[in-house]
Design a protein that fits this description.
eight-stranded mixed beta sheet; six-stranded mixed beta sheet; alpha/beta
Length: 449
């Protein structure tokens, strides 16, 4: 496995640099490599997802529904929590080391012969995923973008369905400073004569997506207009009803119908946070639409698939005594949504937040959200990463007021000393701000059990 990682580390890794080279990126190299290996992406059926928040959860829900329906289903997500293999799965089983190693070796053999080709780390994994899904004869693959949409490595696909989850300001340095610019980047995944489903409700965003879908002659389905959910109860899980009030077809001329075309009662998902019901509605709508492409998915299958969905690392309870929850919320909208869900589920808990942010994120807004809506008990974990934000004094030796009273730690041992009393006194430790905290979160959970 080390040899695989070492080889891949020689490629440009935008995930580690904060996508500094994104503006100069093109699909040229990934297109060349895919063509070299027979264009496997053109021979598999896919669903493509983009969005700022919710695309990972939606992808896992749809993946679970398709597996439950009996289809051999590929799932491509990022980033990974621990192992590269996590990103490339078939029926929830990670790609084996020997297969991953073989694909990496074949890629580098090609690169040795073509010195003008310089794929990124994400290009390489995307190529491998598409080859793997084709070689394994998957019935369908659920593909999540890495960043943006228009210039994402995965945007060589011609999917059956494109799903665009909630869009908010994130990666503004590379995707644009306005919500309209970011929406245009995400809209780049919309392809000709396909179908588009979105959970966005902001008129500016919806108009951009609608205009793109119209140009591409693609059907367009919007939450609270074409489909909706009604939450009946929420807590550590959710119970809700789903309504579809528009006829499902691939024509852009969708008839308006006052009565519900599709209705599912008493759907249960184990994931906390009422926002997950909206993500589930995207997966349900896609499931109904897939019937048009020959996929047989019953209402009972949808309910069972959603009930069995597990999203690694999202609102993940790592320990129950003390209660430790990990969620990688890494932008203000995600942070506020997650914090709101926590307060609703655990209203009487005393919170301690363990956080860390990357410098290319809106870390100041996230600090303020945690302080205002969750807790003043904050521990900042300084990751050994060039991108990691560090709480440092200004030239006058002063710390900004928002960072005062925050404990700063740099290793798991110091963190343990800062939180070990919680096991006796009680409380909830919320670890958040970056996927890169997951390994530390697992370690501290084991130490406190």
């Amino acid at each position: 496995m080390k040899s695989i990682a070492k080889k891949l580390e020689t490629l440009i890794n935008n995930e580690q640099t904060g996508h500094q080279n994104f503006a100069n990126y093109s699909l040229k190299d990934i297109t060349f490599l895919l063509k070299y290996f027979g264009n496997p992406h053109k021979k598999i059926k896919t669903i493509h997802l983009a969005g700022t928040n919710g695309k990972g959860s939606t992808a896992h829900m749809l993946n679970s529904i398709l597996i439950t329906a009996g289809y051999k289903t590929g799932l491509y997500t990022s980033p990974n929590l621990v192992r590269i293999n996590e990103r490339i799965k078939i029926n929830n089983k990670e790609i084996q080391n020997r297969r991953l190693s073989a694909y990496v070796d074949e890629l580098f053999e090609v690169l040795d012969r073509h010195s003008n080709i310089h794929p990124t780390y994400f290009d390489a994994l995307t190529l491998i995923a598409f080859r793997y899904y084709f070689d394994e004869k998957t019935d369908i693959a659920v593909i999540e973008t890495g960043l943006g949409g228009r210039l994402d490595s995965t945007n060589v696909l011609s999917p059956l369905i494109s799903i665009i989850t909630n869009i908010s300001k994130d990666h503004t340095g590379v995707l644009g400073n306005t919500i309209e610019e970011i929406a245009m980047e995400k809209a780049g995944i919309i392809k000709k004569k396909s179908a588009v489903i979105t959970s966005n409700t902001d008129k500016k965003i919806v108009n951009i997506l609608q205009e793109t879908a119209d140009r591409q002659l693609s059907a367009f389905y919007v939450v609270n207009k074409d489909f909706s959910v009604k939450t009946k109860s929420s807590g550590e899980g959710n119970n809700f009803d789903y309504f579809m009030n528009t006829e499902m077809n691939s024509s852009t001329k969708k008839p308006e119908k006052p009565d519900f075309v599709n209705f599912i009662n008493d759907i249960c998902i184990k994931m906390p946070g009422e926002f997950q019901t909206t993500n589930a509605s995207l997966a349900i709508t896609a499931s109904f639409l897939l019937k048009e492409y020959g996929f047989e998915i019953s209402e009972n299958t949808i309910k069972k698939g959603l009930k069995n969905t597990v999203v690694p690392g999202r609102m993940h309870i790592l320990c129950k005594n003390p209660l430790i929850i990990f969620d990688p919320a890494h932008n203000p909208e995600a942070m506020k949504t997650t914090v709101t869900a926590l307060k609703k589920i655990y209203p009487d808990m005393k919170y301690t937040a363990v956080i860390s942010f990357m410098t290319d994120k809106d870390y100041l807004s996230q600090f303020k959200i945690i302080k205002k809506h969750l807790t003043e008990n904050i521990i900042y974990y300084e990751l050994p990463d060039k991108r990691s934000f560090k709480i440092l004094p200004d030239k006058n030796g002063k710390i900004k007021p928002v960072y005062t009273d925050i404990i700063n730690v740099k290793n798991v041992s110091d963190l343990y000393n800062a939180v070990k009393h919680i096991k006796k006194t009680g409380g909830l430790i919320f670890i958040t701000g970056s996927f890169r905290l997951y390994d530390m979160a697992v370690k501290i959970s084991k130490m406190l059990k």
